[in-house]
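Researcher: Go.
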Amino acid sequence: MKPQLDYLELHAAHHCNLNCKGCGHYSNIAEPEFPTLSEFERDSARLKELIIHIRKIRLLGGEPLLNPELPQMIQIMHDAFPQSDIRIATNGLLIPNADEQLFKAMRDYEVRFDISLYPPTKKLMKIIQEVCAEQSVQYTFSPEITEFYNFGDTSVPQEPEQIYNSCWAKHCHMMLDGKIAVCPKPLIRYKFSGLGWEHFFEEDVIDLYDENLTPDVLLSRLNQPCRLCQYCDPLTEPFEWEGNYKTGPFRRDNA
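Model: Structure:
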């Protein structure tokens, strides 16, 4: 029997409207870019050949609500993995003006918002709740976000097994551009290879179309340390959150 995954993340957009200082996905420097639907559907179908079920799928970014084809992406993922709990991870700032087609897709496929409660989002919390209630879509808010962490590297290699075993992101598998990895970090460095990373190991990025890739091999590689683990810094200091979002017109007079 094909293996199952507990969790998978997918980018619906690489750029963002909030542009947080120290963004771990580098969305604050990314050019506007979305995956094409044909590529997204092809990669989802290929993953289905290897994985029978994914318990939770999160479409994120960047800011996924920037993508006008997000409703179609939801349908593609639902068709591939109809029993999955699909979430949209968003800063919530675009929910008040979101297109009706998005809300319809969310209702049709029982998709919910996972809303990150940044300071600008907190100011719109009431209107976001009202819109979600009117549209009959479910949502959750994270705890308020006032700090970020620097997901940098150590200068000295560490024991990868020790870092992996204590890592909160070791099950945050991500699929991107026909590739998949243990966590987002190798894939983000693959995506932004032009930044000239000191530590990047191409073998950490698993090619879904590798003819030697089997379900068992994939599951094994997704559940063990990658080479980048030895340079991952688990003891980063927090810094105060900063973003440069400017509010725009909303659907409520009191927004």
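Model: Strands lie at 4-11, 53-60, 85-90, 112-117, 139-144, 147-149, 174-176, 179-181, 206-207, 238-240.
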